[in-house]
Known about the structure:
The protein has helices at about 5-25, 80-85, 230-245; strands at about 30, 45, 50-55, 55-60, 65-70, 115-120, 130-135, 135-150, 155-160, 165-175, 180-185, 195-205, 210-225. By secondary structure, the chain is α+β, with helices and mostly antiparallel strands.
Amino acid sequence: MNIQKCRWLACERFLIALLLLTLGSSTSTAATLLLNGAFEDTSKTTLANGDIQFTGWTAVLTNSGFSDFFLEGTAHSSVSSTAGNTKFDGTSPGTAVDPFSPYTSSSDEQLDYYGYVRPSYAAQPTSYAELFSNVFKIDGDIQFDVFREDGDSNSSAFLFRASDDFLLNSLTITTDPQQWHRQTLSTSGFTGTEAYLVLHGGTNQGGSGYLTLYDNVFGGLTVVIPEPGTYTLLLLGAAVVIAGRRRRKPAA
Ligand SMILES: [Ca+2]
Ligand SMILES: [Ca+2]
């Protein structure tokens, strides 16, 4: 084996290792919580079409519905004082306890953020808001916490396959109002499928702006879309490897 061949072999191995490393780091990062699934990153941008872009989520507003991320236990013009004052505090016999920042006492409330979706102030049953998650790889059943302000809160979750928007499963939420409940949306048979979740909130009672709160959404591996620079690096690496292989072809 001559020196030039050795250099090419070393070069190729380095590039293959680089390719594998880049692919491995750009397709997924292990996590069971959806990206911003606890709604703690509250930065947002209103898009030209009126949708609201959050980290990990896009709020789509239909017929003047509302959605935002909101600090639990505080007043807000779009959130009733009843729902706004809930602190996962066990004062209602709900089944869910905040897994990340659980209320411990009035002097240690561990306040955190949740996402809310609700109809317009006029609260027509045709008005609602939905939080669309970023695309993720299904990694077990979808689990989330939900708080319905009223029995007539129209609350539901939908799971769509990302490639063709096919509805994989849905859940109509009928939990007792005024309590945090943990809900499970089965993903049986769909592990590894790229999907997105839609969390819906409207009202079944015209004129009453009942809302739905969501928090702590689990069940997916984050899908990271490679940066344009990463694509360039991959293409450049592949081109050099192919060129190297061609160059080493034995002469006829
Ligand atoms: Ca939270
Ligand atoms: Ca909390």
